[in-house]
Write a structure and sequence with these properties.
Length: 584
């Protein structure tokens, strides 16, 4: 079976990670070349596996040596360079690199000087105070790393995977399996479908007319490092040494019942089973049936099963067994929001700031393609050392946007910025200069470990700034690698409501920020608006709106609270109320 583009991209990502270790640095010309190729392949519609080395090289962004490696992977199923590096560096070292404070250089030194290659060894090195002996580290950094491990809940025996990584693997497995003729319907279930922040294992359901072919295709997928179980209708494997994937082949007429059962949560299932019993019905992974005669009442779709149980279909993100069934019964659940309801994106980067990877025109064209009416271009502001725009560059970008408006007459383009919230709550530039922006997002990018009180004050000050329209990724967390700032969500939501500043739901799967917990708390404050924004740094990242809207569903946010679902005129009226903008 030829690898999907996702598989090729996964191989390149491994290449990036292992090259970082080999070089002892996170960026080099080699890693940049691989990363450029990843963007290029994500953006291409062609099948990489069908291309010759010269066709591969013809994709802008794919260089010579990368094309060779892709070709090798397609031909042989692995890349000798990766195999060689895997021998030298255990996969657990890649996990260590995700801990804040542990870059490739330190992880390499851990192996070379302390013989430490995993979290258990790291914990011992902290315990024995030998971590601090490594070059560039000290007592303080040792303590900081110890705190990160604690706050992130990383344990040597704990193997939950951040949803960002798990979703990638799931999409790749699904894409690879779909390439076999044996697969009809395919879907992921479990905690992944519920949009849990971390995933124990990936659950995938398939319908098929040839079960044995599906199972054998699954257990021989590229990237499978162990087959844990393999039977006639189910199998479990480990992918990339890291995550378990469970596959079940189910009958087509029972797909809905299976999807519902394996989506869970267990608590949700238990409540529904009780509800079935109350109606002299029994619910299991195969069907909803009459207890007395055994006749199937519903099984093919989830909708049909919920309907017989006298409930509206409950969106998977809410199925946590924490009162959603009662709320559904009382008609209290909001209508699930979806990506197609959005009319604009309010947090978008371009290559005007250092970390953007697509041009202004590419981002605008992609916005139009999504059918959006408006977009805010929010490149980084000057205080962000590596990629922020100087005042001069801001003025240049403003001119470039004015020109671009002529090329995209159907799109309202707001010239904006992503400001940096300093520890005292102030932002970049000065009040007069800030007036030239039509829209701003303000975000925390530094000083993540101040007290709860200080961070709350900091966020409230930014919210109260008349030049600020949205607080971007309010906690700044990265699931699994950065805990983010602690703050009082009620106080922040109160301030946001009274100053007419929206709170962001950042769509990136590594962020999902605000968290679902904080969204539910913020929802309790009347008048708070949310901006579901991609924070895209590349055209391919606009697709992340799917996750932002799933996060909104998980937080119980109705469409009326989503700022960028408003038609253009209402949207501009809303930001105008803030008093800061001159949006067209
Ligand atoms: P995870 O994998 O730990 O992130 O969480 P889940 O929810 O994906 O759990 P998993 O993979 O063990 O099982 C998938 C779903 O299957 C689960 O959400 C509900 C259902 N399920 C599994 N075992 C049981 C069970 O013993 N009773 C009931 N009612 N449902 C179960
Ligand atoms: Ca699971
Ligand atoms: Ca499972
Ligand atoms: Zn941003």
């Amino acid at each position: 079976m030829k690898p999907s583009n996702e598989s090729v991209v996964a191989m390149l990502r491994q290449l990036v990670a292992y090259t970082q270790l080999e070089d002892g640095q996170s960026q080099s010309f080699r890693t940049r070349a691989y990363e450029k190729a990843i963007d290029a392949i994500v953006g291409t519609s062609g099948e990489v596996a069908d291309m010759s080395p010269s066709e591969l090289k013809a994709i802008p962004g794919v260089g010579d040596s990368t094309a060779q490696k892709i070709h090798e992977y397609v031909q042989k199923g692995s890349v000798s360079k990766v195999d060689r590096l895997k021998e030298r560096f255990p996969a657990t070292m890649l996990e260590l690199m995700k801990i804040p404070g542990l870059g490739p250089k330190t992880v390499l030194a851990l192996q070379e000087q302390l013989n430490v290659v995993d979290v258990a060894g790291l914990e011992q090195a902290i315990e024995s105070e030998s971590l601090r002996s490594l070059p560039g580290l000290g007592k303080k950094s040792e303590e900081k790393i110890a705190l990160s491990i604690k706050l992130l809940g990383i344990h040597s025996e704990e193997t939950r995977t951040p949803i960002f990584d798990a979703m990638r693997v799931a999409k790749r497995v699904i894409n690879d399996l779909q390439r076999t003729d044996a697969v009809d319907q395919i879907a992921y279930a479990g905690s992944l479908r519920r949009l849990s922040e971390t995933i124990g294992d990936i659950d995938i359901l398939v319908t098929s007319s040839s079960q044995a072919d599906v199972i054998s295709a699954f257990t021989s997928l590229r990237g499978v490092t162990a087959v844990l179980a393999s039977g006639s209708t189910k199998a479990s494997v480990v992918i990339d040494d890291g995550i378990q994937v469970d596959l079940r082949v189910v009958a087509e007429e029972e797909f809905g019942a299976a999807l519902m059962y394996f989506t869970g949560s267990k608590g949700h299932n238990i409540e529904l089973r009780q509800r079935a019993l109350d109606r002299r019905l029994t619910l299991n992974e195969y069907s909803l049936s009459e207890i007395d005669r055994g006749a199937v009442v519903a099984a093919r779709t989830e909708q049909a099963i919920y309907a017989v149980l006298e409930l509206p279909w409950i969106t998977p993100e809410l199925r946590e067994g924490v009162g959603e069934v009662a709320a559904a019964e009382d008609g209290l659940l909001p209508k699930p929001v979806t990506a197609s309801m959005l009319k604009g994106d309010l947090h978008v980067h371009t290559d005007w700031s250092g970390d953007g990877r697509s041009t202004l025109d590419e981002m605008l064209a992609a916005t139009v393609e999504r059918g959006h009416e408006y977009v805010a271009i929010t490149d980084h502001a000057e205080n962000l050392a590596i990629s922020g725009l100087s005042r001069e560059r801001v003025l240049e970008e403003r001119d470039a946007i004015a020109e671009a408006r002529k090329r995209y007459p159907e799109l309202t383009i707001l010239h904006g910025a992503e400001l940096n919230i300093a520890p005292d709550g102030s932002v970049d530039y000065d009040a007069e200069f800030l007036e030239l922006f039509e829209f701003t997002v303000a975000s925390i990018h530094t000083y993540f470990d101040l007290s709860n009180e200080a961070q709350t004050k900091r966020l409230v000050a930014a919210i109260a700034n008349p030049a600020v329209n949205v607080i971007g990724h309010p906690s700044g967390r990265k699931i699994g690698s950065r805990p983010g700032v602690r703050f009082d969500i009620e106080a922040v939501a109160q301030a946001a409501a009274s100053h007419g500043t929206a709170l962001e739901i950042n769509c990136h799967l590594q962020r999902l920020d605000l968290s679902a917990t904080n969204l539910r708390k913020a929802m309790a404050v009347e008048g708070v608006m949310f901006a579901v924004s991609t924070d895209a740094h590349h055209t391919s990242e606009f697709a992340n709106v799917e996750w932002g809207m799933a996060q909104a569903r998980k937080g119980g946010v109705p469409i009326s609270r989503i700022l960028n679902s408003l038609p253009k005129s209402e949207f501009t009226a809303w930001i105008g109320k803030n008093g800061s903008t001159s949006a067209r």
